[in-house]
Amino acid sequence: MSDVPDMPPGADRAVRELTRRLPTAFWAFHEQYYRTYKGYAELMLGDPHAASRLVHRVMMDLAVNWNRLMQEESPGATAWAILKISVAQELDARDSEPALTEIAAFRRALLDPYREKFAALESGLGLYAAIARLPERQYDVIVLQYVLQLPPHRVASIMGVRLTTVRSHRRMARAKLARDLGLVINPDHDDEDESL
């Protein structure tokens, strides 16, 4: 395979040889999911370099175990679970909490017009703190769709679930967030493009 990504400087010869012999399906998977995995890891760790290292390790682990992964009922769901476990282990090793609340709120503030930045930051901190309290699947859907701004079909693909499952988790998460934040929403209206 000629489209092998750059290897870290310390990669030994066996790792280099392994990456050259991986099936094209792995490289397609890598191309499709690497950026999203890295974006998620950055939100959780708050450190782009640590996120890059972690996602590289996850991808190499998936590569080494590619044949076994392809035998899973839902390879996408298994790969997503491996990423989340790796992030949780890294957070435990650092003895820290996910950085989502601060990072996402600051990103949102940067996107808002200058005079509204502080108001956006203040409201964003409350919103992202409420997101952090969601059940795991609802949390994943909200982070992937609204924080990382992925369309629902991509969220379903990344999580290895059906689009209807994503919609269901999104609906339940929005209802819980509305209750937690004291907002009124129309529970029968769940437009895919609607913001939180």
From TrEMBL:
Keywords: DNA-binding, Sigma factor, Transcription, Transcription regulation. Transmembrane segments: none annotated. Pfam families: Sigma70_r4_2. InterPro entries: RNA_pol_sigma-70-like, RNA_pol_sigma-70_dom, RNA_pol_sigma70_r4_t2, RNA_pol_sigma_r3/r4-like, WH-like_DNA-bd_sf. Residues 127-177 form the RNA polymerase sigma factor 70 region 4 type domain. Belongs to the sigma-70 factor family. ECF subfamily. This is Sigma-70 family RNA polymerase sigma factor.
